[in-house]
Amino acid sequence: MIDESLRLRLESLNRGPLPTIAIAQAARSPVTALPQKPAKLRSSSSPLRPGLVKPIPGLLRRGEMIVTEAGEHWRVCVAVDDIWPGGERLVFNRCERLGMQGVPSRFVSAFPQHSLFVDLETCGLAGSALFLVGLLRPIDGKLTVELLFARNYAEESAVLASLWQRIDEQSVIVTFNGKSFDWPMVADRSRRHLLFRGQRLRAPAHLDMLHAARRRWKKELPDCKLQTLEQRICGRIRVGDIAGSLIPAAYKDYVRTGFEREMDSVLFHNALDLVTLLDLAMRLAD
Amino acid sequence: MGVQALLERIRSRRDYADQLEHIEALPERAGRFADVSPPLPPALLRVLSDRGITQLYSHQAIATEAARARRDLVVVTGTASGKTLCYNLPILESALVDANSRALYLYPTKALAQDQLKRLLELIADSDELRAAIRPGVYDGDTPTAQRRRIRHEANLVLSNPDMLHASILPYHPKWADFFTDLRYVVIDEVHTYRGILGAHVSAVLRRLLRVCRHYGSEPIFLSTSATIANPGELTERLIGRPVQVVDDDGAPRGRKYFAFWNPSPLGTDSLARRSANDDAVMWLEEAVEADGQALAFTRTRQAAELIHRYLRESLDARRSRHAEKVRAYRGGYLPNERRQIEQDLFAGRLRAVAATNALELGIDIGSLDVALLVNYPGTIASCWQQAGRSGRRQEESLAVLLAGNDPVDQYLLRRPNYFFAQSPEHAVVDPDNPYVLAKHLQAAAFELPLTEDDLATFGPLSGPIIDALCREERLTEVRGAYYHPGGQNPTVGVSLRHMSDNTFSIVETGRAGAAKQDAVTVLANVDSISAPELVYPEAVYLHNGETYLVRELDLNGKVAYVERRETDYYTQAVLESSVVVTSERATSSAVPRAALCYGNVDVTWQTVAFKKIKFNTRENIGLGPVDIPSQQLQTTALWLTPDDVVRAELKSAGLRPSEGIVGLRNLAVVSLPLVAMCDSRDLGGVVNSHNTGRPTMILYDRYPGGLGYSEKGFARMEQLLEICREMVASCPCESGCPSCVGLPNLRPAIHSDPDLTRGHPMPDKEATRMLLDWLTAEDGPAAVDPPRVRRDAREVPA
Question: In terms of CA atoms, which chain B residue is nearest residue A192?
């Protein structure tokens, strides 16, 4: 049940014209200007302890439209280095070192060209739609967070179609709790949209970092939630983040009103989850 | 067992005093058979002939052919006429010839699904070919999570119920994508149970099912079965939204059947009160088992089933009968395993007599018995025939006996057996267009797949405006002409298809007195949470299979009642208090000039406030104790009507009691409102009280949390409602009230009570009701009500 005042506000928003989403190229500003951190913090931070991470304003507007056989959807790309300065080099170096040492790690052998980090944002509990498939993969040789975003419920199938385009026989999916949540959700929603009518769904190799994280840190930490690991293990501190439990309602409001600000937070939240997942995967890679 | 021999035994008893007031002989009938062409697959024919089935009854052949021709159908044939094969034959055939064919079976209860699973497994057990092709599985609330995935993926016959389909299958349909893609048949067993509130919900659930099937490219047909009701075809058509073929030409043979009316002899002291029908049922069961018959007694309450069983057992013990061990009670609340055991023992003939509630009325296969006793009128004509149908051999004679209770309705039927045999069974009413129900299911449907223009035809003419309202309430969002549910939680959570939630309390036996609670606990039974406070309050004596258990503690939060085995010479009876309190008025109307008419919110509460200790056999009241447990509440909507002072004064001066007139009106309104509001009278509650308005007031409410618009419709169409009531009274040929007019028995007994201890409801005065209705329906008051005035003059009554 929605309370009366909120209802009145949303109704008036709903009656007004929807704010248009600007064309991507025009809005693509240089990302190096971000984020503006206090000097002392910046000086103390390193890729291994990045410290405060502030949101990127106007993230949604940086995107562009993608056309698939299942329709259109929105896509926003952010270089990993913009969110985690120095992180990309750190991960590459470590993987190279482990590779030379002959460490038999599935992650290392797939990284970077075949690894695909995946994290979803959904409209709610089981049975609900998904509206964002966040990916982290190399694009043109640079590790990039690629956010496949449905601007409304009708674009979900196009988002899924784009996801499947990026998966091939050699792909290794990397997730956090994805074996229980993200991947069954992708499978269900793909079946729901009849994307593989009459065929079996592809089942790519899948590394779920939750299990490795539990094995490694269970004894030291109160829990092994991603955000706990992010703070305690990766030393990354979020500012102005949106709580995961508020995301479904935020998306519902966005679809109704077209107001982007909360969606910027949601996109950044997802991008940061992916960066932390990369960070954790690197730390767990031996 | 010969029926005549049993009747002779009864008649030659020393206490026989012409209680057999009427015996109707229903003629025997030869079986009629037919073939299907092309014939059924050889493997299936072999399995059938192993069970002695070498020919199909004509209705089975017709049903099989119709299903092969992809026609929706409903089979309406007698009990034990082989209805199950009518849907199993085409489904098994389909599974044998097409490995991808799948079927969904919907049963109204979990027990029925289990029973049918067992029968399917037995059927295929001896045939490798059938075992390889037929993989049945039950998918319901009791199915362990670990097995659910396997059943979704592997079972080709999925046995479930509408509640499960609604809340756990349809909302997660992508997990069932393969199943829905290959779904060819949907069985709706006992379709007559889906009327009123449940029916309105189920019709919406079936529309959601068809929509999901279409999404995955399948178009299953519906194979339904129904007990005898007045309108099985119409009911099924309204439920599924498509025309159906009615298969009602029963080809099964039937032995001669006798239907007897038994009126317990009057007690000398009071000419109106009669011996207890329960006691006479004990006598009947005893005579039946001693005559080597197998008998079943249907009681109206669970406690009555327990008491009859206990007394029967005592009586057989006393005469050292070899059958003493072969009698049981059967009722809701027994654990599934215990119920299965009783059903099997009954089927195998190991049990000779069972006292049961209507839990045994639905189609669980217990074979056919010699004698069915109806202990008190079960409330509807359809139920009478359903229960009477439990006796009936294919060849031999069988007997059904209605043992009349003290209620006016029972006595009315006993006086007029022709009325009973001429009465058609009740109509089942279902309204697929109830906006309150649709609003819930359209949200669920949108959660499953976005609603589009095409769906307006599926969900009927109101669906457009309802979708509009849901969008305005931000429950749905439009995107490019389709309506989406924003997600969050599955919208079926908290939407029950039935009156009340199906939470249950466990009744747990603890060790002997003094032992710690945690030692040796075994679950004995369960009870629905609504009626738990009437059954297992502290210090209650809980009867289970004739034995007495003392309730030590009722844990309302943990939903557990702790009982211990204790031999007592008494049982207990809850004293209930209930009230209907108007909480807010939503609208008033001047449609009835001579009455105040309102619509609004009410709280219906009921509570166990005390209990009585009743000695077994003598029924002496040997004590009273207080009970301190919280009340239960139903918040719903209601209409209320208060005749004004002038009307009441007129009735009084005519020598009539206004309150009786209003009670008569309530009885009529509960029956006639379903005609206006398209519900079942069981979906309504009706009371007459004065504490809300200060004057005697009739209150009619919806028996569903939040209401479903039934009383609202009655409020909006009160003139029509009163006119129907007036008609019913005016056109009824009875003299002073009968079950067809002012005295219809809507009032269900509390299921945990002994009917012998509850006072029957008197038939209200027909004349008072008629005069009240004349006043309420008159355009301009007194002028139109001459006849009562004449009567007042004729019968001078002191003030």
Answer: B174
Residues of B in contact with A188 (CB under 8 A): 172, 174-175
Q: What is the dihedral of CA B491, B493, B499, B501, to 10 degrees?
A: -170
Contact B172 A129 (CB under 8 A): no
How do beta strands A71-79 and A142-149 pair? Answer: antiparallel
* Cα–Cα distance for residue pair B440/B475, rounded to 1 Å: 10
Structure-token pair, residue B407? 């209620």
- Given a cut of 90, whether residue A201 has pLDDT beyond it is no
Q: What is the mean pLDDT of residues A189-193?
A: 95
The yes-or-no verdict on residue B12 having pLDDT over 80 is: yes
| Chain A residues touching B172 at Cβ < 8 A | 126-127, 188
Q: Are B356 and B326 in contact (CB under 8 A)?
A: no
- Sheet with strand B371-375: strands edge to edge: B20-26, B257-262, B398-403, B371-375, B295-298, B353-356, B327-330
Query: Residue B561's beta-bridge partner residues?
Result: B507, B554
Backbone angles phi, psi at A266, to 5 degrees: -65, -45
Radius of gyration of chain A measured on its C-alpha atoms: 19
DSSP string, B540-567: PEEEETTEEEEEEEEETTTTEEEEEE--
Q: How many whole angstroms from its chain centre is CA B671?
A: 16
Q: How far apart are CA B523 and CA B742, in angstroms?
A: 45
For the cut 80, the answer to whether the pLDDT of residue B381 exceeds it is yes
- Please check whether residue B494 touches A, CB under 8 A: no
C-beta atoms of B480 and A154 within 8 A: yes
Predicted model pTM: 0.85
Could A123 and B216 be called an inter-chain contact, meaning their C-beta atoms sit closer than 8 Å?
A: no
CB contact at 8 A, B568 and B548: yes
More confident residue, B650 or B781: B650
Q: Which of A158, A122, A149, A93 is nearest to A245 (CA)?
A: A122
Query: How many Cα atoms sit within 13 Å of B450 on the Cβ side?
Result: 20
Length of chain A as a residue count: 286
One-letter amino acid of B645: D
- Average pLDDT in chain B: 88
Query: ipTM for the complex?
Result: 0.82
Strands B221-225 and B560-565: unpaired
- Distance CA(B681)–CA(B601), nearest Å, equals 20
Tens digit of pLDDT for each residue in B692-706? 999 999 999 998 888
User: Any chain B CB within 8 A of the CB of A67?
Assistant: no
CA B603 to chain centre: 24
